[in-house]
Amino acid sequence: MSDRVLVAESLGKTYPLPKGDLRVFEGLDFELGRGELAAIMGASGVGKTTLLNLLGGLDRPSEGRVLVDGEDLFAGADREVAAVRNRKIGFVFQVYHLLPEFTSLENVGFPLMIGGVPKKEAFHRALGMLLEVGLEDKAHSRPSQLSGGEQQRVAIARALVNAPRLLLADEPTGNLDWKTGERVLRLVLDLHERKGLSSILVTHNEKIARYCHKVYMMEAGTMKLLTSPPS
Ligand SMILES: Nc1ncnc2c1ncn2[C@@H]1O[C@H](COP(=O)(O)OP(=O)(O)O)[C@@H](O)[C@H]1O
Ligand SMILES: [Mg+2]
Predict the structure, then answer these.
(1) Of 46, 88, 104, 199, which cross-links 167 as Cys (Cβ 3.0–4.6 Å)?
(2) What is the CATH number of the domain that holds 107?
(3) Is the C-beta atom of 22 inside 6 A of ligand 1?
(4) pTM of structure
(5) Is 109 inside a domain boundary?
(6) Atom 9 of ligand 1 has which residue's CA nearest to it?
(7) Residue 13 within a domain
(8) For ligand 1, is residue 43 a contact (CB within 6 Å)?
């Protein structure tokens, strides 16, 4: 088994806009080793979310390839890409993206049911995952009844309920105050270790980046590996 769980080769993304094409980056190479925890930093608008969306199969690149466990993520139709994503990749967003009409339990159980797991088993596993993020007592609450930190913990449970090997988090603490954010960060670090994940954290926060094994700086369409953690 390769120790590179995620590889991007000559990746490029161009958004067609009415005023002309916007080329966010091109020829970008990146790799994530098994068990590695990498931070991606960079100024707002530089393309961090765009990159993470390509690495996680949420959007298609204009050029280049993404290999997950050595397999071309975009080889198939959109439905197949979504199926690979559902099985192998957990995504956490800055703004949680929980379904407002659903309880925590339903939100966490949803990816399992999409993957064909019977409802009863899905809820059983979802409850186990809520337990792991310390929110079993909020299983029947809706997102509007939860704090920001709790909503993000539900989102983390949802991201990991399918036991993916890869966790991609886009500024997961960006909407939280420092103390709450730190608690969410510790949870992510703990789950990364305990579940043997390979993870990428996009963050603006240098303190958070210092917890990571590698720190990349995205700048004008290129990725630079920082040799020492940001101070
Ligand atoms: N869906 C889209 N359509 C057109 N332009 C986009 C889209 N998403 C992002 N952009 C543009 O691409 C650039 C990079 O955005 P983004 O990846 O969100 O940056 P970051 O996450 O680093 O703040 C920005 O100029 C942004 O306006
Ligand atoms: Mg972003």
Answers:
(1) 199
(2) 3.40.50.300
(3) yes
(4) 0.94
(5) yes
(6) 50
(7) no
(8) no
Residue with CA nearest ligand 1 atom 4: 15
The residue among 75, 113, 87 whose CA lies nearest residue 165 is 87
Closest ligand 1 atom to residue 218 Cα is: 22
Q: Which of 11, 14, 15 to mutate to test the pocket of ligand 1 (most atoms within 8 A of CB)?
A: 15
Q: Name the residue at shortest CA distance from atom 18 of ligand 1.
A: 49
Amino acid letter for position 143: P
Residue 229 confidence (pLDDT): 57
Sequence-separated (6 or more) residues with CB below 8 Å from residue 119: 109, 113
What is the distance between the alpha carbons of residues 77 and 84, in angstroms, rounded to a whole number?
Answer: 11
The Å distance, Cα 47 to ligand 1 centre, comes to 6
Counting the structural domains of the chain, the total is 1
pLDDT in tens, 26-76: 999 999 999 999 999 999 999 999 999 999 999 999 999 999 999 999 999
The answer to the question of residue 152 being in a domain is yes
- Residue 102 is part of which domain span? 35-58+85-226
